[in-house]
């Protein structure tokens, strides 16, 4: 991950940031709450394989439950603190999605997801900080999956993170009723 400080020389508006993203479709870009431009490298094969397995499981559950809207890692969310983040997987309830205007749905989604999953591919510290940022901006449930250490950090609003060592499954709890993420091929 590469972070480029732009301020005080340059302050990107949301529209300018979106234009940079459109001009550079092969880059995975984000923006910190301080206005820094974040460039994330593409994932490797194992991480891409695991990301897809996770996203498909959430998608299939969501197709059955019809409780909300699921998003992949290409979706930008503009958090209340001004950051624009792209979790590996995200979900929001239907009522929050339908409360957005058509224009808001087309651009960076102007809210914090209720549920996110981040999958570790390199340094764990920036991802843990990102999870805390999600919590500070309204996240209800989040999972930071660390295949390298066979563990998952579970983030819930208002309580300290919980660590699960080598879990085989994770429950979506009350937020995602009936959703169970099978980790048998993600945490080998």
How would you portray this structure in words?
The protein is an alpha+beta fold and 188 residues long. Helix content is 29%, strand content 29%. The protein contains five helices and 13 strands. It has helices at residues 14-23, 45-65, 94-98, 102-106, 124-136, and strands at residues 2-4, 28-31, 37-40, 68-71, 77-78, 84-85, 89-93, 115-119, 141-146, 151-156, 159-165, 169-171, 180-182. The strands form four sheets. A six-stranded mixed sheet has the order 4-7-8-9-10-11, with helices on both faces. A hairpin with a 2-residue loop joins strand 10 and strand 11. The longest helix is centred in the first third of the chain and has 21 residues, at 45-65. It is globular, with a radius of gyration of 16 Å. The mean pLDDT is 93.
Mean model confidence by pLDDT: 93
Structural class: alpha+beta
Strand order of the largest sheet: 4-7-8-9-10-11
Shape field? globular
Instruction: Assign a percent range to the helix content.
Output: 25-40%
- What oligomeric state best describes the polypeptide chains here? single chain
* Low-pLDDT runs: none
- State the distance separating the first and last CA atoms: 26 Å
């Amino acid at each position: 991950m590469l972070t480029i400080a732009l301020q005080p020389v340059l302050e990107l508006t949301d529209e300018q940031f979106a234009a940079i993203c459109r001009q550079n479709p092969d880059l995975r870009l984000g923006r910190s709450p301080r206005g820094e431009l974040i460039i994330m490298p593409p994932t490797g094969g194992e991480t891409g394989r695991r990301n897809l397995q996770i996203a498909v499981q959430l998608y299939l559950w969501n197709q059955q439950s019809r409780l909300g809207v699921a998003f992949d890692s290409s979706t930008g969310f503009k958090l209340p603190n001004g950051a624009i983040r792209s979790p590996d997987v995200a979900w929001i309830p239907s009522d929050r999605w339908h409360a957005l205007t058509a224009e808001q749905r087309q651009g960076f989604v102007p809210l914090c997801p209720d549920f996110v999953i981040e999958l570790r591919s390199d340094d764990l510290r920036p991802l843990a900080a990102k999870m805390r940022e999600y919590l500070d901006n309204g996240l209800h449930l989040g999972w930071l999956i660390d295949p390298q250490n066979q563990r998952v950090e579970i983030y819930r609003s208002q309580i300290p993170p919980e660590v699960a060592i080598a879990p085989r499954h994770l429950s979506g709890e009350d937020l995602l009723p009936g959703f169970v993420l099978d980790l048998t091929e993600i945490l080998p």
